[in-house]
Amino acid sequence: MREIRRTLTCIVFAFACLFSLRAQHTEGKVFRAGAATSNITPMVGSSINGNLKDVLVRHIHDETHARSIVLDDGNTRLAIVVSDLCMVYRETLDEAKRLASKITGIPVENMMMSATHTHSGGTACSVFQSDPDKDYLRFLTQRIADAVVRANNNLAPARIGWGVGSEPSQVFNRRWKMKPGKPLTNPFGGTDQVKMNPGIGNPDLLEPAGPTDPGLPIISVQTPEGRPIALLANYSLHYVGGTGPGEISADYYGMFARRMQQLLQADHQDPSFVAIMSNGTSGNINNVNFGGALAPAAAPYSRMRQVANIVAAEAYKTYQRIQYQDWISLSALQKEITLGVRLPGKEELARAKAIVAKADGPVMNTIEEIYARETILINEYPKEVSVILQAFRLGDLLIAAAPCEVFVEIGLDFKAKAPFKPAFMISLANGYNGYLPTPEHHKLGGYETWRARSSYLETNASVKIMETIFGLAQKLKQEQPKQ
Q1: For the chain, which residues make up each domain, given as ranges?
Q2: What 3 state SS string does 73-140 have?
């Protein structure tokens, strides 16, 4: 019995020493967090991004926002902003970062700014036949910067934790291999091996051309007393859609944010609790089960509300399991690399000009006409473009960011091989450089690979981007201080 008591005493003493050392290590260190939103709703009569033809705003169903979190470990501050936009110019975000940095002192390299990819937000980037209004871009620049400044103003002592849920029921690969026999023609006169959005119940369906990612990582920050400050989630779902005609909506991203406020009973706080859904690697993922049965027509907004509620329920379950830390260290790395542009050849350009010349008017109507116009416009691009890549470390958690609609295979590979666990990627961050398929998917063809302002990077771009991101991650690992 004495030996047992002696052993128990030693164990208790060892734990006491461990906690004492940890307390000494973090003694005097205070972790802080702040969050805020800025309204970025466009005016009625302006342009909506996300369609092959331009659509004008007729009604505001729900306001769109830039949602921001600022984290501070006493030495390093990080800002993460997610805006309810389909995509946004790098120049707009660069200026927003500059303005916010001037006021807050947060380095621009420590700011990660992305778009949700709602297809019912204001136009902030020229894609297909939608072009942004210059006044709206100026408005966006200021309001996105404001979100960072206000979140920084709300910094207060906090604790932080994270967890990873899983919700496989709302994600489906939208690229399908089809039964042989019917050629899959593309707008350039060639044929593809896969088809995007092939139709529910299509008898020619063979199998999806790739996997999905059901992962739902969430990061939660609270006051030391447990009052929610902010929650950042990440899900690899392109968007949901299903709005009324010409209506502005933040899509399921905004509905998720409001539902999390309700679930956490944090919808009447001061400062306001901020929930954020960021877009993961969803370049080839949507919410339509093409291999399933045809469902009855849904009323506007009903489907996105259903998705938001289901995903929020899983986030809430994960939230309840989170173990919080009073202090963690933060760090960030950024690198700019140059990538090639897939410019058209002389024959391709001549063909495109002939197609546009025969079109009825300034609006292109057929898919062939639309991509011919894109060919002419992409011909004015430089041979190379620069892109910003980032990696943020939050304790033992890693967030990477790329300015593209990243394919799900890339995100899954990153999660599996990253030197931190958990790890996830935020797409459409710090600018917009189109889809990011893997080289293998480029060989298969399909909508996401068709050369346009929505898809123009060299076919090996994903390899170069991920080599850089893994390099940043490894450097963060090597430099990580012991906690």
Answers
A1: 32-176+202-340+381-479, 346-378
A2: CCCCEEEEEEECCCCECHHHHHHHHHHHHHHHCCCHHHEEEEECCCCCCECECCECCECCCHHHHHHH
